[in-house]
Design brief:
It is a single chain. Among the domains are: 340-489, Orthogonal Bundle (Isoleucyl-tRNA Synthetase, Domain 1); 549-638, OB fold (Dihydrolipoamide Acetyltransferase, E2P). 39% of the residues lie in helices and 20% in strands. It is built from 20 helices and 27 strands. The strands form eight sheets. The protein has a six-stranded parallel β-sheet, sandwiched between helices. A five-stranded antiparallel β-sheet has the order 21-20-19-22-25. Strand 14 and strand 15 form a beta hairpin. 40% of the residues are buried. The structure holds 5'-O-[(L-methionyl)-sulphamoyl]adenosine. 5'-O-[(L-methionyl)-sulphamoyl]adenosine binds at residues 11-14, 22-23, 25-26, 51, 230-231, 233, 259-260, 262-263, 291-292, 298-299.
């Protein structure tokens, strides 16, 4: 059978400086998508590369005292290594300084000229070199570039122009008729209202005031405008206008072109118009994702607030960084990066949820079945609920991935991990072992192992290294038949008798914030002290639902005095309280309104969890939790002290 194809691209990067963690975002997302499509049986072509020409690069090379080619070669080598350590599985890496690209771009330019889309005239207007973009006087923002807000330069030179105006109506019509073409929708509206409706001016597509670019074939005093050069990479890499058209035939039009939001205009106006002029189909979807920001705004070299991805990978491992980028930020929206948020994700999602599921399961399997996968008995309702959820997961995740909802897909996977952890608590294998219910115990353990197998396969596109480590422990590494997309459509394929290896390795050690932890990260460099250190490996007792004294010690329990209490409009269960810890006051939202009148609470001293992550309830910040006891009849009473003691006292 002929395989379905999938062509995905990232922008090609300027090799003007080392890339920061924000740059990695597009490529990590594209890689997760490419891997997901390969998993589901597509013939994938995943393209990335470098955008090496133009005035910006020429100037930077000059400043570095190097020839442009030598200057970019060095950085491109670094970029390729970065993608290697990020496990980017690109099928091709195109450099715009390669012959295959340059020849094809010259042919494209020639074709435009011969068919009358390009004419020679004189350009007088503004140019933003960092963005490599032309602007008209009326488009400027207080005399600066409307995109990056940096100063623009006045350019007066003889140039070739592309007749954009000729294609405006066709493009408008195309965008209206193909609502999926520009995603998310907000970006589509912006393009229509801000650029297409006011009318497109013809675009200057050659420059004469510098020379680092591809020469116009019939007029070599001109170099081709860097965006026409760069955008063409998506087809020159497929061999467009070369002797071998096979890749063009197989993969064009692209299925998804991922880009950051600041370059949407180039990809949804210029690019489709060039393609129309070439008589080629337009990509099925151009997706403009949001930015990864720091507390103080966008990362940029000039602000000196870049985060070096190599340093982060060194500290936390590439899978963990990939997980954070894909999980933390809904694709399309802007999101914040901080090392503290990263550490929290690692601890909660990877060490606790995923790591514990594996550790608990394998530790119990070791104890009760000498680490051998047992033969399951009959499945009960609880088991069917678990297996039903596992079997629905591939489709649910595939649908979300088709909408580029990486975070949504991972959330679904983690819901299932959570369900499997709860299944351990509900079935209490330690109690089954004590009661001698061998068959039931075997079924429960088997179902847990199957759940982990399915999770590990679905994890593969997002965290390509971790599944292998799980399979080693499960004793199924290399068993392609039970690690494929088809195999996770079945529940019950791990062979009984397989020997697992418990506790051979902790997947993700818990990290403890050091004293500096919590401060926003400005510039992560190799010399910085890490914000977190690995904690000791979790103990086997955890498998049986027991916690250690150290675990208990992590809860900061205090006595607090309630100093204010009031009802919250529209929330009949909640009260807004102020509590005093002696030296400090906190606002808490508590679900006790059905049990206490606000006034009756004033002056009460109660037990309080002081280091709970703050949450927002009904838009109100809640910084901690009051402890209350609840019985089966639904009565609820706050826990107070036996004798008065000052507020803020520690409970040990
Ligand atoms: N060379 C052009 C693209 C040409 S494509 C035909 C370019 N290069 S870039 O190196 O400046 O940016 C590459 C990608 O990184 C872009 O998609 C850009 O949006 C993305 N990012 C750069 N900084 C970013 C963040 N802080 N956050 C998320 N993505 C960011 O533009």
């Amino acid at each position: 059978m002929h395989k379905k194809t999938f062509y995905i691209t990232t922008p090609i990067y300027y090799p003007s400086d080392k890339l920061h963690i924000g740059h990695s975002y597009t490529t990590v997302a594209a890689d997760a998508m490419a891997r997901f499509k390969r998993l589901t049986g597509h013939q994938v072509h995943f393209l990335t590369g470098t955008d090496e020409h133009g005035q910006k690069i020429e100037r930077q090379a000059q400043q570095a005292g190097k020839q442009p080619q030598a200057f970019v070669d060095e950085i491109v080598t670094w970029i390729k290594r970065l993608w290697d350590i990020f496990d980017i599985s690109a099928d091709d890496f195109i450099r715009t300084t390669e012959e295959r690209h340059k020849i094809s771009v010259q042919k494209i330019f020639q074709k435009f000229y011969e068919q009358g889309d390009i004419y020679k005239s004189k350009y007088e207007g503004w140019y933003c070199t960092p963005c490599e973009a032309f602007w008209t006087e009326r488009q400027l923002a207080e005399k600066n570039c409307p995109d990056c807000k940096r100063p623009v330069e006045l350019v007066t030179e003889e140039s070739y122009f592309f007749r954009m105006s000729k294609y405006t109506d066709r493009l408008m019509e195309y965008i209206e008729k193909n609502p999926g073409f520009i995603q998310p929708v907000s970006r589509k509206n912006e393009m229509i209202n801000n650029f297409l409706k006011p009318g497109l001016e013809d675009l200057c597509v050659s420059r004469t005031s510098f020379s680092w670019g591809i020469p116009v074939p019939f007029d070599p005093a001109h170099v081709i405008y860097v965006w026409l050069d760069a955008l063409s990479n998506y087809i020159t890499a497929l061999g467009y206008l070369s002797d071998d058209q096979s890749k063009m035939q197989t993969f064009w039009p692209a299925d998804v072109q991922l880009i950051g939001k600041e370059i949407v205009r180039f990809h949804t106006i210029y690019w489709p118009i060039f393609l129309m002029a070439l008589g080629l189909d337009l990509p099925k979807q151009v997706f403009g994702h949001g930015w990864l920001l720091l507390e103080e705004g966008k990362m940029s070299k000039s602000k000196g607030n870049v985060i070096d991805p190599e340093v982060l990978i060194d500290r936390y491992g590439s899978d963990a960084i990939r997980y954070f980028l894909l999980r933390e930020i809904p694709f399309g929206a802007d999101g914040h990066f901080s090392e503290t948020a990263l550490i929290q994700r690692l601890n909660f999602d990877l060490a606790n949820d995923l790591g514990n599921l594996l550790n608990r399961t394998l530790a119990m399997l070791n104890k009760y079945f000498a680490g051998r996968v047992p033969t399951p008995g009959k499945r009960e309702a609880l088991d069917l609920e678990l297996s039903g959820m596992a079997l629905a997961l591939p489709d649910v995740m595939e649908q979300l991935m088709d909408q580029l909802q990486f975070s949504g897909a991972l959330t679904e996977l983690w819901k299932f991990i959570g369900r499997a952890n709860k299944y351990i608590d509900e079935t209490a294998p330690w109690a089954l072992a004590k009661a001698g219910s061998q068959e039931r115990l075997a079924t429960v353990m088997y179902n847990l192992l199957e759940s982990i197998r399915i999770v590990s396969v679905l994890l593969l596109p997002f965290m390509p290294r971790t599944p292998e480590r799980i399979w080693q422990q499960l004793g199924i590494a290399g068993e392609a038949d039970i690690l494929s997309w088809e195999s996770i459509r079945q529940f019950g394929v791990i062979p009984s008798g397989t020997q697992t290896v418990a506790g051979s390795e902790v997947l993700f050690p818990r990290l403890e914030l050091t004293e500096e932890g919590g401060a926003p990260v400005r510039q992560a460099t190799k010399k910085d002290k890490p914000l977190a250190v690995a904690k000791e490996a979790p103990r086997v007792e955890e498998a049986e639902g027991l916690i250690s004294i150290e675990d208990f010690g992590r809860v900061d329990l205090r006595i607090v005095e309630i100093t204010a209490a009031q009802k919250i409009e529209g929330a009949d269960k909640l009260l807004k309280l102020t509590v005093s810890l002696g030296k400090e006051e906190r606002q808490v939202v508590a679900g006790i309104a059905k049990h206490y009148e606000p006034e009756s609470l004033l002056g009460k001293r109660v037990l309080f969890v002081a280091n709970l992550k703050p949450a927002k309830l009904r838009g109100l910040r809640s910084e901690g939790m009051l402890l209350a006891a609840a019985d089966e009849q639904g009565n609820l009473v706050l826990v107070t002290t036996e004798k008065p003691i000052s507020s803020g006292s520690k409970v040990k």
